[in-house]
Structures are given as C-alpha cells and as structure tokens.
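Hi support team,

I submitted a single chain yesterday and got back a structure, but I'm not sure I'm reading the token output correctly. Could someone confirm the output below corresponds to the sequence I sent? I've pasted both exactly as they appear in my results page.

Thanks,
R.
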Amino acid sequence: MSNYKAPVTDLRFALHDVLKAESLFAAMGLEDASADVIDAVLEEAGRFSASVLAPLNAVGDQTGCKLDKATGEVTTAPGFKEAYAQFVEGGWTGLTAAAEFGGQGMPETLGMALSEMVSSANLAWSLFPMLSHGAVEALKHYGEDWQKEAFLKPLVAGHWTGTMCLTEPHAGTDLGLLKTRAEPNADGSYSITGTKIFITAGEHDLSDNIVHLVLAKLPDAPPGPKGISLFVTPKYKVDRDGNKGERNALRCGALEHKMGIHGSSTCVMNFDGAQGYLVGQPHKGLQAMFVMMNSARLGVGVQGLAQSERAYQGALAYARERLQSRAPKGPLLADKPADPIIAQPDVRRMLLTTKALTEGGRLLAAHAYTQLDAAQNGSDDKARADADTLVSFLTPIVKACLTEWSIEATYNGQQVFGGHGYIAEHGMEQYARDARITTLYEGTTGIQALDLIGRKTAVSQGAGLKLFLAEVEQFIADNANNPAVAEFLPVLGAKAKEWGKLTVSVLQRAAANPEELGAASWDYLFYSGYVALAYWWARAVAAAQVSGHTDSFKQAKLETARFYYARVLPRTLTHAASMEAGADPLMAMDSARFGD
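Hi R., thanks for writing in. Yes, this is the structure output for that exact sequence:
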C-alpha cells in the first residue's frame, strides 16, 4: 500500500498563484480567508488526511461495514468512528458553514481543497460527512426557521450527519416514478412510507443522529416530477425545539454489496410511517433537492480528482523504484542489473497523462468553486448572476470529466504496476474499484452530458459557454506579448472558436431533430472538458513563470503543458468528428436488429 502525501504545494499554487484566491475572497467580503489562513487549513487538512485517514483506507476496504439485521444498526470499520470524532473535534465539519449556525464561514473553494485531500486519503470514509454539507445547504435555503434552528447547528457541528434519499428500486433518474408517500398528521408532521436504495451513509455508528432528506409524494400530488415534495426525516425524532426523541419508524433493511468503497455504508432504507417535516413548498421538492444535488455533483467531481491524485502518487513512486530492462538509449544505472521503468516512453506517457489531467483538473474544479463562492457572495446582482450561470455550466463538466479521468488514471496506475497492480498489496486495485462509483452517483456520465448540452447550453442559449469563452479570450488578449505562453495561445484560440462553432452546429441540427442533442452529448461533454483544460494549462504556465516556486516546479508545469497540448488535447479531433457525424449512425438501426 503506497503512502499518501497531500499535494499541498500544488493546491497552494492553484489557489494563490493561478486563481489569486485571497484577492477574490476579499472582494467577496470573505476577508477572514487570508493567505495565512488558507495555508494553515491546507497544512492541517493535509496532515490529518495523511496521518489519520490514509492508514484506514485498506482497513475499510477489507473489513467493510456490518449490519445487525435484528436491529438495523450498522457498525463501521475499525478506526472509522475514532477518525470521525477527531474530524469533528478539529472543526472540519463546519469549515464552510455560516457562522450563525456554528460554522467558520470559510469559502467553498477552501472546502474543495479539504474534500480532495480527505477523499484521496480515504474515499469510503469521506462519504460519511460529505452529504451533510448538501443537507445544510438545502435546509438553509428552504427550511423553516425552526427547522434551521433544530437541524443545522448539530449538522454543522458534526454531531449529526445528513443523507439524500432519492432513488427507489424502480425509479432511478426518472424521479417522477417514485412511490414513497407522505401522509399529513394532525400535528403538522407527515408519515413517510416507502423504500429508498443506494443511500450513502444511510445508517452508521459515527454520529448521534442521521438526518434524511427524503423525496416523497403527498396524497394530492400531481403526476410526474412536478408532484414531488421534500421532507426532513431523522433517525431519531426531533421536536420543534430541537430535542432528540425516540427512534423513528425507519431502518436500514440491507447493505448493498458493492464493487468498491466497501468502508462506506450504502443502504436500503425502509420508511414505515416515519415522522417527517415538509421542507419548502408542497410539490416543489426537486427545487430544494437540486441545491443538495448540485453541491454533491461538484463534490463527486473532486472525489474523482482525488482518486487520480492517489493513483498518480502510487504509480510514480513505483515507476521510480521498479528496476526492469534498460532505458532505450542505454543503461542509466550501470551498477544495477536494470533501469527504473520511468525511463520507458510508454510508462512516461501514462504518468504524464495522469499528471496533466489531475493537475489541470484541480484548476478546473477550483475555478468552479470560486464561481460558487461568487454566486453566493458577489459584490452585486450581475456578478452573482454571472457566477451562478458559469458554475451551473461547469458543474457537469467537473463532475463527469474528473470522474471519468479518474478511471483512466487508475487504469494507467495498474498498467504501470503490471501484475502487481492487480493484487491488493500496493492498493492500486482498490483505487480502480473505488473510482468507478464516482462516475455513477449523482447522475451518470450520460446524464451529465445531457445536462450540459441540454439545460446548460440549449435552454440557456449558451449563456455559460459565452462567459467561459469570454474569460479565455481575455486571457489570450492579456498575454498576447507574453513569451511564456506564446506557443499555446494560437492553439487555445482556435479551439475556443471551434467550441463555439460546434455548439451552434449541434443546436441548429437539434432544432430540426431532437435526437441530435443526445447523439452529440457525450462527445460535447469531453470536447468541452479538454478545451477547458487547455485554458487552465496555459494559465498554469503563465502563473508559474512569475511565481516564487522553484525553477524545477516551473519547468515541470511548462513540460506538462506541452505534453497536454501535444498528446491529450488532440482527442478533441475525434470528439468533434463524432459530433459532426450527427444522429443517423446512432439511430438508424431498428432496436430489434441489435441482437442480429
């Protein structure tokens, strides 16, 4: 099992040198997030992740969670409960929460850095506190005053944790089909009855209470998604004064048997007339739930990034140490029987691809989070509206691309290790299994692709894309005479223009044939991701050259950017050609002939 070292230096580079985060935060009125505070958070979060969580990663995978079928109680892997207690004691659960609820009021961007390090160290463990953040956001925006007082403070403190209960055995993405019912009670509460599946951290022994946010339908609900309401339904009943009472009528019916993240309790939750309270307006539950879901989608993208980082660290260490064959140009270690495999061009291809996608993806994600902060704290209405539009556009790109790239990264890691990558000793096979879930929950890659090209582009008439391309154009103009990035700007400018033209082309075809959107969506998503990274790699080079980092660090950024432009960005050629091929090659075959 490889050791984990938090990438504090690269996170500092992303936040301080590229994004100028402390200046952005100050302009938003978040002066407490000074450069010193940012550095202190990165250092301590990195220490906690590496020393407390990383040693438990294999333990959680090997031991998993245990369900007592008689009581419905779940016990987590050895060490998980103690680690969570340290996490709570350190105040990490309230890092980005509002001070009025007991939080520290730090920017979401800093929360993203914490999330990456925690998820790299131990993805399964990270899932227990993750959804509490979304529950806090949903209740903060849509909860009644008494609900905020009763639920938010213990959630922010970490004494309670939250979940998101959407999926049912027969209803996945199509939530309009859900059958969970909410019957009104005389005291203003509701009785929630139904079964939810795939509920992350639905039952565990880490916190004193678990707050479930449950989608259900009222008796008078109209059909389809417009008839969905949201209810806060805790494991232990909570009265309007915030007092915890008796056990509610809900329990874990089973633990899902999963490919990976064995240390996380993924539950089938049965609600048998459980007491819940309506959150927001009747039949408007999806509006409230999307606050939680969008937060989670960005968070899952960061989890994908985290697995890429962990895979890269393991593969790099192995490639430097593993002696096998000779370098193509002759022996590097004359006193050894062989040279390190990092001398082999194909090993370097895999390492550089992972490095480029990971470090570039970190900048892409951090940028999205700065826009999330600006949408909440911008200086005026227009600034907040533009930031909200841009983060909405970037969310499916961050979620889908960073998770899919984690599959590539962990695959590359296994290839670097060879046969040793398939056995448990080095941990690479666990990263490969764990990473798979990130492409699935909070919406599969296909769902993200449809969201990007549909709601975030077609419906909005490209509003988010226009904002992003304007940023790219401004960077090119500002650096027209900067020799550090002169080799990248012509390619970046051409790709940005092509992005706009491809978008117009797809939308024009879709006006005549609605199947064109779905047919182009997957390729459009990845085309967007690769061009976005081209922008961030150019910015990384520009920022590195004027930073206080070492010459070696600066040269590494330059050489990685060159590799990205030469060997990864050309993937856009395939995606562009596929989009231009249109829907006919996909839709021409009759479904009956698929088996012929």
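A quick pointer for reading it: The first strand starts at residue 66 and ends at 68. Let us know if anything else looks off.

Best,
Support desk
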